[in-house]
Amino acid sequence: MSSDSDTSGRAERRDLAFDALADPVRREILAVLAEEDECSAGALAERITSVGRTAVSTHLRVLRVAGLVTERRAGRFRYYAVDPTGSAAEVMTLLQGLFQQSLHDVRATVENRPPASGRTDTDRTDGAAEAG
To answer: Which residues form the HTH arsR-type domain (predicted)?
Structure first.
């Protein structure tokens, strides 16, 4: 029973992360954080010029709730960083798995495809078939 709730919890976190990543401003914020390691909300608002400070704060909250960024408070400032152990890691693992499977599928398709125009390597006249 615990396994089912763990699985559904992971799926829910993954869904939140993908929902958060669907927005181009949030992806831009993550890109800045990936470059800077840690950044204050004010500094992020200065770099993200497509929206205002309030919108940046709202986007940061969505990213935090989705488990993609961490928040550290220091006095009246809040600093944000990509969370390498949170949903970001899960999403990367999932995407890497999908990418690897896609590569495997493409490789299998190419290897099992018949030669073009019905020719085989033995039909070649340049001697390359014998050299390989």
So the answer is: 6-106
Sign of CA dihedral 47, 49, 50, 53: positive
Q: Whole-model pTM?
A: 0.65
- How far apart are the C-alpha atoms of 1 and 18, rounded to whole Å? 26
pLDDT in tens, 28-79: 999 999 898 899 999 999 999 999 999 999 999 999 999 899 999 999 999 9
What is the rounded CA–CA span in Å between residue 78 and residue 72?
Answer: 6
Strand runs (DSSP E) across the chain, as ranges? 39-40, 69-74, 77-82
Average pLDDT taken over every residue of the chain: 82
Domain count, the chain: 1
Tokens of 39: 């950044």
Cα 57 from Cα 86, distance rounded (Å): 20
Q: Which domain holds residue 16?
A: 2-82
Contact 26, 62 (CB under 8 A): yes
Examine the pLDDT at 87 and tell me if it is beyond 80.
no
